[in-house]
Design goal:
alpha/beta, Rossmann fold, Nucleotidyltransferase, domain 5, Taq DNA Polymerase, Chain T, domain 4, six-stranded mixed sheet, globular, DNA-binding, DNA-directed DNA polymerase, exonuclease
DNA sequence: TAGGTCACG
DNA sequence: ACGTACGTGACCTAG
């Protein structure tokens, strides 16, 4: 909508100008809003926050004029006056610095004048323009996060200080009266207060021994530094008196530095600042590029008419549908999307040209069977088809020629695995530079309703995006050298994961129930004992309440750790468990309630009528290329503790089948040996099966047979640490040793395996240069944290850069194995099925008579999945349940 | 909805 | 000096 500058109804009401302190508000926004980046990796949170604050103010002010002031780099008149007045300010973080030109570009696009003048600070420009505007009879609002601006407050000039709170942005307003109320001095006197007390961040020296309180008291009484000096002998705290006597010159200099120059020679014409339509084409484009979706709503409807929606057509009779499918058969590119709602096909969306976009709801003669039948034909005949979330659609269609169909969500995931969604609107934004309404926005209320216009629009966008993105995503994959990874691993894996989900795993519901009941009894006992020892009833599951009981009431040692109070995490409690019986009880309680709620009760609700659990295996979640499992997560079923491990007994094969479970032995360390090419480690793997022991032997220079259990344990921890992106602190925590000792271990380790150190260093260095790391199979992980100015973030980036190629390569390898194992069992006519993957482990439900055959397949395909410098060893077990097969 | 905790590799 | 091991998902509490 065009925002007209509204003429005020009453003639005696004055016009208003809003003046914004650019850097100050940008700063506020930067620190107040979590980091955001757009698809190009540009940080955008400060610009976004600035615009939100600006719009909020404009919405409530109804002003007629607007301008934004920025500092320039050049030295100001203050530098000339006072040498120390120079760049001791904190440097701006790079993430914020990047955003300054973007902010200026945005304001320019909105035709908002920028006030900048070499040799003057934004404060001076704001003060000058405010004074001039006031002289012309305008009301003035100055928006800044900086309290120094309070000296500009008058009856007509209001200083507005936004505060970002949890509940949103709140703004504190100060006219002259409010300044006096809050600070006990007038705005003009505020300068003198600041001059006396000084301001380190602004390089105002002030005078020694005078802080805010004394300064305020003196100025409140005498009105100015000069007048106070005139009454020097009356001044109260002796220290302040003598300081003022001695440093009067400094005080006066401070005052000049602190005073905003309201007569700076800034070129400013009120007419240029008149608020016109902020919502220009240029601003729209920039908002789009920055991905400010919420702000786009402020622009005229959904922006420049996107011609796409003009070509959406809803088809309701089979005659018309037949024609469409005929054309689709010959399409170069077919975009399709099955519309699935509550596990039922509600319709189909297809697109095979810029103007051929169709929504075909299931209705009458146009049955689900008709639609899927015709779609299968089309997908088998069109040169290529694109869709989003193919695995979900496979429940309803068979793909005749897998090579012709691509899942664009998976392509987009490979291109950038750090996003959390790959919906059609994400893809449109990323690959078509198009902002389209999301499914959530369109179908928010009411869900799927074939009659609604929004449903048809959603279908249209889905089909169009699937069509239009097919080429761009594949081109991008080729540019990034991931096309082979896509076609040879990720796309085939879609079908493998679908098969696994469909197969599911059988669960003995009665036994699961019994397991839960057993826990309940013990939980009750523990609860009573804990309450008895605490002397009161409380919710043991509440870390907050528990913290208070343990560390305040019972006064156990172990101070604060978390933001919201005491840490009661297991590693903290472990240290107290020996000495305080209540702590052991709590630890046991925690363990048992976890088993009960997450596993016993948690799993039970997922058992379907066929007695099986069908988890979802997600292919576009992790940053490293692993798959994830949800609803329920079957990749974190207990195994480390015996009691928890028991739960695996409820996972059983169908009658006549057994489980065959195979897991890679130290796959990540083997991957590291390979990609680093470290001779010593490779040889170690060639000669011994106990790698941690041989590591200890090599690192500590002791004969293999004399390695103590402790030495082996330490070596094992270092091996793990290396894979995680080692740090002496992390290792010291893990082994409960000092940082120094940990650092020594690491040094020795690197001396023993120099190529590993070289590899890790080079990987980090290269990641800093390129912005990403890759696996052996070309999978990328961007590491934006490496360019952060924040030490902690950057260190995190370094560890990620070291870990991702290792974890990711292992993920690639097991994916290859899964595809081949699954295919072989199907092609060789077996009844056995792959049913689970747990990162380095595959679980097969094998027909009893096929067990040996299955073992052979698992061994061949898992070991043969990659040809590394070291052998890929596996451990394999069979059993009548998952407990036994492990 | 976020934070704390804990299950897995 | 900063304050951590890497990658996940589910449940619970509390605002």
């Amino acid at each position: 909508m065009t925002r007209k500058s509204e003429e005020t109804a009453a003639g005696n009401m004055s016009e208003k100008i809003v003046l914004i302190d650019g850097h100050s508000i940008l700063n506020r926004a930067f620190y107040g809003i979590p980091d955001l980046t757009n698809g190009e990796g540009l940080h955008t949170n400060a610009v976004y926050g600035f615009l939100n604050i600006m719009f909020k103010i404009l919405d409530e002010e109804k002003a007629q004029y607007l301008a934004v002031a920025f500092d320039l780099k050049a030295p100001t008149f203050r530098h000339k006056m006072f040498e120390a007045y120079k760049g001791t300010r904190k440097p701006m973080p790079e993430e914020l610095h990047q955003q300054v030109p973007v902010m200026k570009e945005m304001l320019t696009a909105m035709k908002v004048p920028l006030l900048m003048k070499e040799g003057y600070e934004a404060d001076d420009l704001l003060g000058t323009v405010a004074k001039r505007a006031e002289a012309e009879g305008l009301d003035v609002s100055i928006v800044s996060g900086d309290r120094d601006l309070l000296q500009l407050a008058t009856d007509k000039t209001k200083i507005r200080i936004p505060k970002t709170k949890r509940t949103g942005t709140e703004i504190e307003d100060y006219n002259a009266v409010e300044v006096k109320e809050k600070y006990l001095v007038t705005p003009k006197e505020f300068i003198d207060v600041k001059a006396l007390m000084g301001d380190a961040s602004d390089n105002i020296p002030g005078i020694p021994g005078v802080g805010e309180k004394t300064a305020t008291k003196i100025i409140a009484e005498y009105g100015s530094i000069e007048n106070a000096y005139g009454h020097l002998e009356e001044i109260k705290p002796n220290k302040a008196r003598e300081s003022l006597r001695e440093h009067y010159d400094m005080a006066q200099l401070s005052k000049t530095l602190a005073a905003i120059d309201t007569d700076s020679p800034v070129e400013f014409s009120l007419e240029e600042a008149r608020l016109g339509d902020l919502y220009t084409e240029e601003a729209f484009e920039l908002c789009k590029r920055l991905e400010f979706k919420n702000l786009l709503a402020r622009f005229n409807c959904d922006g420049p008419k996107n011609s796409v929606s003009g070509h959406f057509k809803k088809i309701t009779d089979t005659a018309a549908a037949d024609e469409i499918f005929e054309s689709a058969l010959n399409a170069d590119i077919l975009g399709f999307q099955l519309l699935i709602w509550q596990k039922q096909i509600q319709g189909l969306a297809v697109c095979y040209g810029e103007e051929d976009i169709y929504y075909l709801p299931v209705q009458g003669a146009m049955t689900a069977e008709y639609l899927t039948g015709r779609l299968e034909q089309a997908a088998g005949s069109a040169k290529m088809s694109g869709t989003i979330n193919l695995k979900e659609e496979l429940s309803f269609i068979r793909i005749p020629d897998r090579k012709r169909v691509v899942d664009e969500a998976i392509a987009a995931y490979l291109i950038n695995p750090l996003k959390d969604t790959y919906t059609y609107d994400d893809l449109a934004k990323e690959y078509l530079q198009m902002i389209v309404p999301s499914r959530m926005e369109l179908l928010a209320k009411g869900g799927y309703d074939p009659e609604r216009e929004e449903t048809a629009a959603c279908a249209g966008y889905m089909a169009y995006v699937a069509f239009a993105c097919a080429i761009p995503v594949q081109d991008r994959l080729k540019e990034l050298d991931m096309f082979k990874l896509f076609t040879d691993i990720e796309m085939p894996l879609v079908y493998t994961l679908y098969d696994m989900e469909k197969a599911g795993i059988m669960v003995n519901a009665e036994e699961l129930k019994a397991y839960g009941d057993k826990l309940t009894g013990r939980i009750g006992e523990l609860e009573e004992s804990i309450w008895a020892q605490a002397g009161e009833k409380f919710n043991i599951n509440s870390p907050k309440q528990l913290g208070v009981i343990l560390f305040e009431k019972l006064k156990l040692p172990g101070g604060k750790k978390t933001k919201s109070g005491f840490s009661t995490a297991a590693d903290v409690l472990d240290k107290l468990a020996d000495e305080y019986p209540i702590v052991s009880l709590i630890l046991e309680y925690r363990q048992l309630t976890k088993l009960k709620s997450t596993y016993a009760d948690g799993l039970a609700v997922y058992i379907t009528e066929n007695g099986r659990i069908h988890s979802s295996f997600n292919q576009t979640i992790t940053a490293t290329g692993r798959i994830s499992s949800t609803e329920p997560n079957l990749q974190n079923i207990p195994v480390r503790m015996e009691l928890g491990r028991e739960i695996r007994k409820v996972f059983i094969p169908s009658p006549g089948f057994i489980f065959v479970d195979a897991d890679y032995s130290q796959i990540e360390l083997r991957v590291l040996a390979h990609i680093s090419g470290d001779k010593t480690l490779i040889d170690a793997y060639r000669q011994a099966q106990d790698i941690h022991r041989i590591t200890a032997s090599q690192v500590f220079h002791i004969p293999f047979d004399e390695v103590t259990p402790l030495q082996r344990r330490n070596a094992k921890a270092v091996n793990f640490g290396i894979v995680y992106g080692i740090s002496s602190f992390g290792l010291s925590q893990d082994l409960s040793i000092t940082k120094k000792e940990a650092a020594e271990y690491i040094n020795k380790y690197f001396e023993t395996y120099p190529r590993i150190k070289q590899f890790l260093d080079e990987t980090v260095e290269n990641a800093k240069k390129e912005g990403y790391v890759t696996t052996l199979f070309g999978r990328r992980r961007p590491v934006p944290e490496l360019s952060s100015s924040n030490f902690m973030q950057r260190s995190f980036g370094e560890r990620v850069a070291m870990n991702a190629p290792i974890q990711g390569t292992a993920a690639d390898i097991i994916k290859i194995a899964m595809i081949r194992v699954n295919e072989r069992m199907k092609n060789e006519g077996l009844l056995s099925r792959l049913i689970l993957q747990v990162h380095d482990e595959l679980l097969v439900e094998a027909a009893a008579e096929e067990a040996e055959h299955v073992k052979e397949i698992l061994r061949e395909e898992m070991q043969g999945a990659a040809d590394l410098a070291v052998r890929l060893e596996i451990d394999m077990h069979t059993g009548a349940n998952w407990y036994e097969a492990k």
